[in-house]
C-alpha cells in the first residue's frame, strides 16, 4: 500500500510537470510520462495496482491541474491501464513492457477520441480523420515511455 | 528487447493507422467550412466538423440550417417555393444552396481550395 501510494504521487507529479514543461508541442499531443509509473505498478504489483495507480493519478492530476479535463483523462486512464493489464495476463509475458506501453497508449488516445466524439459532438468523418494520427502518435509515445519503464523496472528489481 | 509479439502488435497498429490515413485521404472532400451570405454579405462561417443547427435572418425571415456528418442542408425557409429545402444536402467543394427570395446563399469552401476547375 505504501509503495502504491508512492507510485501514485510520483505519477501525479510527472503528470503535472509534463503539462507545464515549456517545450513547444502541439497542444493535444504529449508523451504520457505518468504511464511509466502505471507500467511499473503493472509489472511489479499486477493489474489491480496498475488500474488503481492510473485512476488515482488521473484524479489527483485533475484536482491540481485542470479539473474539466478529467472528463478526458479519467476514462482514458481506466481503459488504458485495464487493457494493459488484460494484455499482460492474456499474452503470458510474450508482450514486453514496450509492447504493453504502446497498446496502453493507443487505448488511451482512442478512449479520449471516443469521449471527444460524445462530449464535443464531433461527427464521424472528423473522428475518422483524427484516429490514424492519434494511433501514430500513441505508437511513438508508447515506444518512448515503454523504454523508460523497461530501464526503471530493471533498476527497481535489483 | 522487443519480442516478436511486440513487433506484430506495433506493426498492426501502424498498418491500421496507415490504412486509416489512406481512407481519409481518399475520401477527403476538401471541404471543411460552410459560409452563409445574406444579401451578398457574409454573416456566418462554421466548421463542417461539428454537427449543429443554426439560422440566419434573410429578407423574408429566418432560414434554418443543419450541419451533420460533414454535410449541410436547409431545414426550413420562409420562401414560397422551398427550392433551397428541396436542394437537400450539399457536401462537395463549391456546392451551393441559394434561396433567392430570402437572399440567402450557402456555400462550401476550405481544404486549401485545390480544384483544377469548376464547371456548372
Short description:
Chain A is mostly helical and 158 residues long.
What does this structure look like?
The complex is a heterodimer of chains A (158) and B (120). Chain A is mostly helical and 158 residues long. Chain A has one domain (2-157): Arp2/3 complex 21 kDa subunit ARPC3, CATH 1.10.1760.20. Chain A has helices at 2-20, 34-45, 47-64, 70-91, 97-119, 124-157. The radius of gyration of chain A is 15 Å and the shape is globular. Chain B is of the alpha+beta class and 120 residues long. Chain B folds into two domains: 1-29; 33-113, mini-chromosome maintenance (MCM) complex, domain 2 (Sandwich). Chain B has two helices and seven strands. In chain B, the strands form two sheets. Chain B has a four-stranded antiparallel beta sheet with strand order 2-1-7-6, with no helix packed on it. A three-stranded antiparallel beta sheet of chain B has the order 3-4-5. The N and C termini of chain B lie far apart (60 Å). The model of chain B has no long low-confidence stretch (mean pLDDT 86). The chains are: A mainly alpha (158), B alpha+beta (120). At the A-B interface, α5 and α6 of A face α1 of B.
Distance between the termini of chain A: 20 Å
How big a fraction of the residues of chain B is strand? 35-45%
**Percent range for helical residues of chain B?**
10-25%
> Regions of chain B with pLDDT < 50 over 5+ consecutive residues?
none
The helix tally of chain A amounts to: 6
Instruction: Please provide the ordered H/E string of secondary-structure elements of chain B.
Output: HEEEEEHEE
Shape of chain B: elongated
Reading off the top of the CATH hierarchy, the class of the largest domain in chain B is best stated as Mainly Beta
Q: Total number of β-strand segments of chain B?
A: 7
Strand order across the largest sheet of chain B: 2-1-7-6
Amino acid at each position: 500500500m505504501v509503495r502504491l501510494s508512492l507510485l501514485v504521487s510520483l505519477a501525479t507529479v510527472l503528470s503535472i510537470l509534463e503539462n507545464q514543461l515549456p517545450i513547444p508541442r502541439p497542444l493535444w499531443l504529449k508523451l504520457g510520462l505518468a504511464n511509466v509509473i502505471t507500467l511499473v505498478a503493472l509489472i511489479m504489483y499486477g493489474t489491480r495496482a496498475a488500474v488503481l495507480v492510473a485512476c488515482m493519478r488521473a484524479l489527483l492530476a485533475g484536482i491540481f491541474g485542470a479539473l474539466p479535463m478529467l472528463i478526458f483523462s479519467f476514462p482514458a486512464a481506466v481503459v488504458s491501464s485495464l487493457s494493459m493489464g488484460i494484455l499482460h495476463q492474456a499474452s503470458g509475458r510474450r508482450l514486453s513492457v514496450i509492447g504493453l506501453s504502446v497498446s496502453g497508449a493507443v487505448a488511451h488516445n482512442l478512449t479520449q477520441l471516443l469521449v471527444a466524439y460524445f462530449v464535443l459532438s464531433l461527427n464521424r468523418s472528423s473522428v475518422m480523420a483524427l484516429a490514424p494520427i492519434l494511433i501514430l502518435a500513441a505508437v511513438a509515445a508508447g515506444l518512448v515511455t515503454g523504454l523508460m519503464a523497461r530501464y526503471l523496472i530493471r533498476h527497481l528489481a535489483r | 528487447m522487443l519480442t516478436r509479439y511486440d513487433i506484430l502488435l506495433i506493426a498492426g497498429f501502424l498498418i491500421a493507422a496507415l490504412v486509416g490515413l489512406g481512407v481519409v485521404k481518399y475520401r477527403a472532400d476538401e471541404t471543411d467550412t460552410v459560409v452563409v451570405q445574406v444579401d451578398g454579405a457574409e454573416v456566418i462561417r462554421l466548421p463542417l466538423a461539428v454537427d449543429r443547427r443554426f439560422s440566419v435572418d434573410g429578407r423574408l425571415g429566418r432560414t434554418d440550417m443543419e450541419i451533420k456528418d460533414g454535410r449541410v442542408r436547409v431545414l426550413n425557409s420562409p420562401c414560397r417555393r422551398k427550392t433551397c429545402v428541396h436542394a437537400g444536402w450539399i457536401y462537395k467543394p463549391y456546392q451551393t444552396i441559394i434561396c433567392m427570395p430570402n437572399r440567402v446563399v450557402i456555400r462550401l469552401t476550405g481544404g486549401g481550395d485545390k480544384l483544377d476547375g469548376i464547371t456548372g
